[in-house]
Amino acid sequence: MTADAEVGEGEQYDPREPVGLLLRDVRSQPNGLSEREAQRRLVVHGPNVLSRRGRRRVWWDLLGQLTHPLALLLWLAAALSVVAGSTPWAWRSWW
User: Fold this and answer.
1) How much of the chain is helix, strand and coil, in % rounded to 5?
2) Angle ∠(28,33,36) on CA atoms, nearest 5
3) pLDDT at 86
4) Which residues contact 77 (CB under 8 A, 6 or more apart)?
5) Virtual torsion, Cα 61, 54, 40, 25, nearest 10 deg
6) How far is it, in rounded angstroms, from Cα 91 to Cα 82?
């Protein structure tokens, strides 16, 4: 594995791998990157910052939560409970 290699979906790492091999794979040292390597990675990969995804839409998120397949299954179970006349169970399901 090289420092520029991307992690594949099926690729797994051994947590017992010696630290020395891991540092070699990412081209680092125990005391960090050299100034030259840090500058090279900054040019190649860009700055290490998180990008904003935009404004959150609370109502859209709530709608997504209420229409999730498992939530819909619970809504259906509660509605069937009301139809069957078992309202105490239905109220427990809704709240």
Assistant:
1) 55, 0, 45
2) 120
3) 75
4) 93
5) 0
6) 9
